[in-house]
């Protein structure tokens, strides 16, 4: 028996996954009721709408809610819009993630740079503490 996404395992959407994985996860793991396509639906009780509302503009969320309440717009349509919104909203971050996944040396350089900066700050702080305590 299917469980609500919030109560089941694998209840996260990894925005860094590839587009097909995101689509598959949303379509498979977000459970909706059996309300027929032509009937009105309650957006506020649906996980798919709650997630969409988190990343869509107020106007986009309002439009989806109106479509659901009017009928003739099904959960499949809502899931499709959610997939598109997740993919488009995080495409820039996904591209950066993939870049760094494919360029580990660049990540190492950035980390080393940060370590050097942190070392300078830590040394200055320790010097101040030592001077304050009289441990010159």
What ranges have pLDDT less than 50 throughout 5 or more consecutive residues?
A: none
Biggest sheet statistics: none
Distance between the termini: 70 Å
Name the overall outline.
Answer: elongated
Which structural class fits the helix and strand makeup?
mainly alpha
The total of beta strands comes to 0
Summed up:
The protein has 136 residues and is an all-alpha fold. The protein is 66% helix and 0% strand. The mean pLDDT is 92.
Key features of this structure:
about 140 residues; mainly alpha; Tyrosyl-Transfer RNA Synthetase; about 0% strand; elongated
Describe the overall structure:
It is a single chain. With 136 residues, the chain is mainly α. It folds into two domains: 5-102, Tyrosyl-Transfer RNA Synthetase (Orthogonal Bundle); 104-136. Helix 1 (19-29) runs antiparallel to helix 4 (75-89). It is elongated, with a radius of gyration of 24 Å. The model has no long low-confidence stretch (mean pLDDT 92). The chain has helices at residues 19-29, 47-55, 58-70, 75-89, 91-102, 104-133.
Q: How would the blueprint of this fold be written?
A:
Blueprint (H helix, E strand, L loop, with lengths): L18 H11 L17 H9 L2 H13 L4 H15 L1 H12 L1 H30 L3
Helix pairs in contact: 1-4, 2-4
